[in-house]
Structures are given as structure tokens and as C-alpha cells.
Amino acid sequence: MIKNKPNLKKAQKRSNKDVEIIEDKIYIPNEMVNYGNNKKYLIQTYGCQANERDSENISGILELLGYERTYDENNSDFIIFNTCAIRENAENKVFGKIGSLKKLKRDNPSLVIALCGCMAQEEKTIEKILSSYQHLDLVFGTHNINNLPSLLLDALYSKEIIVDVTSEEGQVIENLPSNRASKFKAWVNIMFGCDKFCTYCIVPYTRGKERSRLMENILDEVNDLIKEGYQEITLLGQNVNAYGKDLNKGYGFAKLLENVAKTNIPRIRFMTSHPWDFTDEMIDVISKYDNIMPFIHLPVQSGNNGVLKKMGRRYSVEEYKILFDKLKKAKTDVAMSTDIIVGFPEETNEAFLDTLALVDYCQFDNAFTFAFSPRTGTPAAKMKDNVGEDEKKARLAILNEKVNGYFLKNNQRFFNKTLKVLVDGPSKKNSDVLSGYSEHNKLVNFKGSKMLIGKIVNVKINDVKSFSLEGELVD
Ligand code: 5AD
Ligand code: SF4
Predict the structure, then answer these.
(1) What is the pLDDT of residue 149?
(2) Given 73, 160, 209, 282, which residue has the most CB atoms within 10 angstroms?
(3) C-alpha to C-alpha distance for 474 and 85, rounded to whole angstroms
């Protein structure tokens, strides 16, 4: 049963209406109270931190209904795919995974399978699901996570798949239940949505209008996290620098960041920054507080002015470099990372060489590199996608080799240095080794007791690689 279908045209609209802040807790129909007792759920999360945080809320809601988490799909009563729409290969992965569950669903018809997140907000996903993935039970979007108990009830009583996805500007929903993935590192949403409409990006359509949480609600959340012993928070938004613009309360990201820094939580990170909204006031705050970590993710996307213009990025290469240099100067030894797209429509080889030259100039500490992937509904998808797939791959390989060289070079500055590391847990590659992140967001591996997990410890670096540092625990 289709209750609501996404509509990309509608998703593109922006009004001047005030954003509604919903404080009420979620509504749980009587039938769903304790419905999850003795049942298990599995959430598979794709994409960015916004999705990670949404999954923590979904998990919180399901545990409120009595569900318990599992990581084994054969043992699940409810499987949820929280999806990402940013590139086609991310979507293909999800469809492949959902397809592979057909047999499980046939063997266990009481299993409920749901898809949510950014892919659900796309018209073409819904068409594809209705034509080829009828074994799904429920599709909901990024705007109605708080309705999950009622949506699940509908899905349980319906023989058909339930689709309830609205394309709207969105509200700010406070006080959702939350089951955080970590006991010492927390995501804190400061705003939702995006109004930048970069021509390649689907996010403004999937996540609605740029809307900020009230500063007092964010600070309350941070103070609660401190009381619970959290060591690190990451302030989240698609464009954190635009924080507060929609509120007209006379404060913005600089003020928020300063107030968060004054709570004295040991570590503060934030992402993602857009160069367009980065003010000197923000730079001053970043430089002034030692608990604001020396690591800034500042996506550049391209090193060519013509491409940047077609991308709708609102800055030139020269302006990016000025901002980059200011940040480097303001915060001692700050690590900078970026996102870069190659093969944007009509990116010539010369334009690509400009991107390589920018990488040589900035020498990033980290970079996420992507081949352009046309997203239906965005302006760039209507441009001629005229850089061939092989050429995109070749440019990506050249770019990756260059950025990787700088990762190693940058990491070398930490050789023999003692770094403060927040210990995450056993290393993914070797369970005898602990790993965590330094203040500069470098992955550090070292030997130590599991008692140190969740603590900030000193590690002296004795080996340096492109993607990690190795060291030993010191006092
Ligand atoms: N194709 C390729 N990369 C994209 N990104 C966003 N949209 C696309 C697209 N259509 C990249 C950008 C962004 C990062 C999160 O994903 O670099 O900063
Ligand atoms: Fe996050 Fe963007 Fe992917 Fe949506 S499309 S999940 S906002 S990365």
C-alpha cells in the first residue's frame, strides 16, 4: 500500500516558513507496546554520520518496543537497511543485499524487512522496489523515523508492502529515543538538511531544508553526554557552518562552537564544513580552544574554477586556498582533509590537472575521492556525462596515488612524537592490538590492556604508514 511517495520536484522547493520543533516523545500504538519482547532486530547502515546517528535513533525506538539487537540475519525478526543515495555504487550494493534476502524471507515469512534513509527518498528506488523487490515489507523516509512504531504496525497487518515516504522541508524532532553505538564518542546533530544545492548532490532532495536545532537543546545534550562520561563529540550537519542562519536568533556556528568548547568536554570535532560559510569568527574560536581538535574536513571537490562553477560550489580555487591557509595559520599544525570528485561533466584533462595542482598546494592529511555519479533529479544529471568510465577510473587512480603520497608525508611528522589517543577497542586487523584516534584524527595502533578502552592515553609513535601510525603506550 502506497501511503506517500517521494517527489523530487517537491523536495527541491524551499519556503520561508518557520521550522517546526517537535518536542513530543514518539507515539507508540497500544498493539506495539512490548511487541518486540523476545524479538531481534538488525540494522545495516550505509553512508555518512547522519545515517549513523539516525540508526542510533531507530535502534533506540526498537529497544523501547522491547526488541534486542542482533548481527545475525538468520536470527532476526526485523531487518532494516538505512541507505545512502550519494553514488550509484552505494545503491547497487543495497539492492544486491536486499535481493540476497529473498530466500530468507521465503523460509521465514514472519521476518519483516524495511528500507529507509536517503535511497527511500528517491522516486526511482520506489519504482524499482515495487517492480522487483516485493519481498520488502516497509519503506520509510528520512522525515518519519519517529513514526516507526505505527509504520511497523501497518506493515505487520498488511499483505502488501507499505511505502510511506514524504518529500518535505522537514522539522526538527527533539527527544527521540537513542541507543548510541559508543559509550565514549557521540554524534550530536546540530542541524539537518541542506540548502546549497551543489549541482551533483542529491542530499538537499533527500534530507530537506537546512534547519538548526536550538542552541539550548544542543548544549543540554552535550552536558548530558559529559555526565555520562563521554570523551568526544562530533557536531553533525551537512553544512555545520550554516548553523543558526535559519533561526534568526543572533547566533551561529561560532557561538555554538564556543559554548560547546566551554563545557570542557575533552574532544570536539565537527563535520562537514562548507568553505562558503566559514567565517573569521569561527576560525578564531577554533584556534582559541584546545578541546576543539586540530582536524578540519573541508571539501574542495575540484581544483578548477570552471568545474567549481558548474558544480555550484560558490567559491573559486583562489578563495579556497585563502581559507585553507588561514586555518593552517590559525590552528597550530591542524590536519586538513577534503572530498574530491573527478570526471564531472566536461572536466577536461587540463581541469583535472588543476585538481592535482591544488592537491600539491594543500597536501591534505586525508582525502575522500570519488568518480562523478549522475543522480537523477539533480542538475548535473542533465549535463552531458562525457568523461568516459575508463577515463574517470584512470583519473581517480592518478589522484589517489598523489593524495596517498601526502598522507604518508604528513604522517611522518608524528614519528617519535607522543600523541594523545582516545582508545576505541581492539584493532580490526589484529585483536591483540588496540586502536584509537589521535587529536589529528590519525588511526593509531599499539599494545595495551582492554581496560584502556574509552580512555585518552599517551602513545609514542615508532612506525608511520600512509593510513595509520604504530606506537607504544607511555605514561
Ligand atoms: N558523484 C560523486 N561524488 C559525489 N559526492 C556527492 N555527490 C556525488 C556524486 N553525484 C561526494 C562529494 C561529497 C561527498 C560526501 O560525496 O565529494 O562531498
Ligand atoms: Fe548521508 Fe548523503 Fe548518503 Fe544521505 S546521501 S546517507 S546524507 S551521505
Answers:
(1) 98
(2) 282
(3) 44
